[in-house]
Amino acid sequence: MRGFLLTLLGILILLAVVAIAAFVWLTRTPEPAPPPEPAAGERTVEAAGLNWRVREDGPAGAPAIVLIHGFSHSLESFDGWAEALSGDYRIIRFDLPGHGVTGPHPDGAYSNEDTAAQVAELLDTLELDRFAIGGNSLGGLVSWRYAAANPDRVAGLVLVSPGGYSINNVGDEPVEVPLPVQLYLRLAPDAGVRMATQTLYGDPSRLTEDRIAQIGQMMRQPGVGEALIARLQQFTLPDPEPLLATIDAPALILWGTADTVVPASHGPRFVDAMPGARLITYDGAGHMLMEEYPAETAADVQVFLQVLDW
C-alpha cells in the first residue's frame, strides 16, 4: 500500500509540474512577427500619440472614402474593395490603435469612445474635408460614432456588419475576458487563427491560406496581443439608438445572413434607428462580407457612392 501511495503521489506531482509548465508556456510573451514590407501608397502618420500605418490608393483629387477594419484584423481586410474602387475614389485605410503595424497605444486607451476620438485626430491630420467613411464590425462602430460626432464632414456611411447593439452580454459595462480568449489573442497560433477566421466566413472555402497567414502575422506584431485583450476589457455596447438617430448622412448597411458574430437581425434595427439607412443582405454570407464576396459587395458600394453629395 505504501508503494502504491508513493507512486500515486509521484504521478500527481508529475501532473502538477506538467500543468504548471503548460500554463507558463501558454502565458509566455511570444516572439513578435516581423512587419510586412510597406506596400505602394503606404506611410506612417503621427497623430493622437501614435504612429499610424496608413495606406492610400486611387487618385489624390478624387472623392475620398475611409475604410476601417474590424477587431484583431488590419487594413488588408479591405484589399478587395480598394482594388475595385480605387479607379474612381481615393481609398484611405489604416491599422487601428492596438492593431497591426500601428501597434499599442501608449496610454492603453482602447474604449470605443477613445478609438473614435483617435481616428478623428488622424483624419484631421490627413486634412480630409468631406468624405465617406465605413468599416466592418468594430470598424463600423467607430465609423458611425465618427459620423454622429462630425455630421458636416461625412458624405455617406458604409457599414459592414457593424457593432452597436449588445452581443455576448456586453452592455453598459465590459465583461470579463475568458482565459482561453486571452491566450488565443496573446499567442495567435496558426491553428487558432485558421479556426477563428473560418467562423467569420459563411463559406470557409473562400478563405485562403495566404490570408490566414497574413492575419496571424498582423496579430503577432509587437504588443498587439496584449492590446487586443486590453480593448476587450474596456469594450462596452450601450444603447446606440440615441446616437444613431442623430445621423442624417445616407448609410448603406451590408450584412450576411450567416453572420455568427453580430447577428443579421441587428441590420433592421440599424435601419429603423438611422433616418437615411438602407440594408442589403447576402444569403449565406458571414461576418467578413468584403473579404468573402469582394466583387459583389464592392459593386453595391459603387452604386451607393455615385449618388452621394460630395
TrEMBL record:
Residues 63-292 form the AB hydrolase-1 domain. It comes from the Bacteria. It holds the Pfam family Abhydrolase_1. Keywords: Hydrolase. The keyword Hydrolase applies. The keyword Manganese does not apply. One of its GO terms (molecular function) is hydrolase activity. PANTHER family: AB HYDROLASE SUPERFAMILY PROTEIN YCLE, MONOACYLGLYCEROL LIPASE. This is Alpha/beta fold hydrolase. It comes from Glycocaulis abyssi.
